[in-house]
Amino acid sequence: MSKERPVIEHLAELEHKRWANWQRRVHRLCGESRTIPAELWERWERQIATPYEELPEDEKESDREEARKTIALLNDIGAITLIG
Question: Given 3-state DSSP classes, what are the helix, strand and coil percentages for the chain, each rounded to the nearest 5?
Fold first, then answer.
């Protein structure tokens, strides 16, 4: 990664990758019908409506994994010193 690019560009690239991975997952789960299965819709609606602090531990860990990617990117480009 180039340290000369503005931090916003690095973060935007990371967000695009995150979004693309999510879309690949949704497309795979929906299949040829292009319809979101009801159980997924219900789960995602519940997750949307739930504040972070009330999420189950496995869902919090999924969010932490994404946060770690952001921290790693910021560390790689020298925007921060690696933190835990």
Answer: 75, 0, 25
Helix intervals (H) in 31-83: 38-49, 57-76
Distance CA 76, CA 70 (A): 10
CA distance 31 to 9: 32
- Residue 1 has a pLDDT of 53
| pTM greater than 0.70 (yes/no) | yes
Indicate the DSSP class of residue 83. Answer: -
| Mean pLDDT score, 1-29 | 86
Residue 68: which of 84, 51, 47 has the closest Cα?
84
